[in-house]
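quick one before i forget lol
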Amino acid sequence: MNRILLVDDSPHAQRMGERILSEEGYEVVTVSNADSALIRLDDVDPDVVVADTVMPGRTGYEICQYLKMSPRHKHVRVILTAGILEVFDEEQAQRVSADATLKKPFEATALVAAVKPLAEAAAKDRAEIAPSAPAAAAPPLPKADAPFVAVVDADHVRAAVTVALDAAMETMVDEMTRRVLAALRSKKAEPRAAEPATAPLQAEPPQPAAPQAVASPEVATRIEPVRRVTPLRIRSGSILGLDISRLEPPAPPSDSE
């Protein structure tokens, strides 16, 4: 069975490529960046590498250049991909000796047509490169007295951590799902505490009427009678109650006087 290493930082492109190639009988391994791809080359040992040219960090061009310069991977074929709106550098693809180019999103017929002949050619070259008889085991090398010093590269460490997380993600999701389901079942099985019976509503007892104040005999004796005052009538022709109307002339004396 031919093995395909799909390198793309787009989860959608990974799912589409893996589904199309798996249905054709290929064994597909997907990674999300170039560093992870370079780490997985030895254990995957692919026949074809499908690498995106636009990725954070190292690009598909660099993966292709590395594979074409590595004697151990000289049989591997490389397909460089790019999105429909991404700029594809044809000159750089030729400079790194890419075997084919392909546009995304993946169309099933085009992807299979590009991968199939390259996978067959890689399998043929692999068979020719492989020795016909197993080589004799090499004698063990003497132990060096000088201590071995490892060169720590931050990019390699990050890629290794990414690979480890990718491998453990499915197990972590299954374990978290199992624990959540167990917690929900245990919570559902717990008996609910009996709710206190609600006391029937009772009518409130009537409130006693407020006592009315009763005047004491001493207070009653101190009450003086009220005098009624007749309002003073003022005639219109008077000032301050004085009559200022015209005086009648005195009557003339009679003859009898």
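fyi Strands lie at 3-7, 27-31, 48-52, 77-83, 100-104, 238-239, 242-243.
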